[in-house]
């Protein structure tokens, strides 16, 4: 590890703290960067050094490439770890880091660029043998083009921004009549959100699950797939709960896809951490996209496979070989991650403010990744996620029981959080029995599921009344 003795973390919050802890375990010094809003943040307090890089707004601080590079050079850092979000998937920034003689802890700039564009990513996926959703052959260049492709693919279809991400810049189109308006709106959203209005089209899967496979590759051609995660419980394309492994899969489906993903990653020469994301419907997988970075939900994989993915990222970036082979990667038990946001659990309106009491849960199989504390003031400037509760147990039912206990113990006062929603979800019969897909949570929040339950209860009551009437008739006879 002689190459890397000091790492600058170009991020904030729980992921910055996560990286600092991994570095400390490895004897590596750390540099925190922070905005003026974050001067009292925990990652600033725990890093060996810290540098203020600008005012609160992200564009002036955590997205300020020159300020971050200057901080790295002034503190004599050897490497930069971007975490996730912010600059983690900016190919130009990764390239600048290397041009300044620093080590980029992540996939190469060329790989980020190739897989960051959804159209190019799909072409690469096809070339590398990954199964894909039927869709347009490249970009959809006009409304007429969109109508022609939709006719070929068959409605319903999905319009997507080629440069999109985070669930933005996508729109379902159910018929030809809807296409003109949908096409114009999606192009406008893509332009304003990503600076690129290029669109492409895919077949809309009506009841898919979101399943992703964790990739890790080194600079010596070695690749390992650390199983898969089920991230199907989503609200507005934002993940709410994540599980490892995906209990819906058979062992054959799992083994086959691990081999497919491993072959694809080796073929594309992938290095460092990444994730192949798929839609899964009717027993078949369809490539969705690749995230060329660490995922928010990486802890569930760490809990099940007993691996420190951040540590491996750093080792790989330093030129070392992976510490694992596919044959000695063995899963143990089940893990679920709950994203705890400072939001109203019913309206989902962000609820920044001062935390008057913070008492996270603990005990066997419970991990909390967070950077908040009693007295900390959550700023309105950044993402509302304030903690991740990760629970591990020998199997899924035991994991759900442990999670219920852990959520009940978790106390955050002073701001509203989404803990009540997580508690409700764990008690829901569909969640317990794996009877959900990507659209289930939206339906649940609208009350559709509860209405269906009431309809079912009413039906059962009617059937019972019929039986009682029949019995009375029989007795009279």
Task: Briefly characterize the structure.
By secondary structure, the protein is α+β, with helices and mostly antiparallel strands. It has helices spanning 13-25, 42-46, 65-74, 91-99, 109-116, 118-127, 143-153, 179-194, 251-268, 298-305, 309-317, 396-409, 419-427, 429-432, 440-446, 448-476, and strands at 6-9, 29-35, 49-54, 79-81, 103-104, 157-165, 168-173, 199-203, 209-217, 223-235, 238-244, 272-281, 284-291, 334-341, 353-354, 357-359, 366-370, 377-378, 385-393, 411-413.
Task: Jot down its keywords.
five-stranded parallel sheet; 4 domains; 477 residues; Dna Ligase, domain 1; D-amino Acid Aminotransferase, Chain A, domain 1; alpha+beta; eight-stranded antiparallel sheet
Q: Can you tell me the CATH architecture of the largest domain?
A: 2-Layer Sandwich
Oligomeric state of shown chains: single chain
Cα gyration radius (Å): 24 Å
In CATH, what is the class of the largest domain? Answer: Alpha Beta
Spans of at least 5 consecutive residues with low confidence: 454-461
Strand content: 25-35%
Tell me the structural class: alpha+beta
Helix content: 25-40%
Query: What is the CA-CA span between the terminal residues?
Result: 90 Å
Count every helix, treating DSSP H or I runs of 4 or more residues as helices.
16
In the CATH hierarchy, what is the superfamily of the largest domain?
ATP-grasp fold, B domain
Number-wise, the strands total 20
List the domain count as a whole number.
Answer: 4
> Which shape, going by the Cα principal axes?
globular
Query: Order of strands side by side in the largest beta sheet?
Result: 13-12-9-10-11-14-19-17
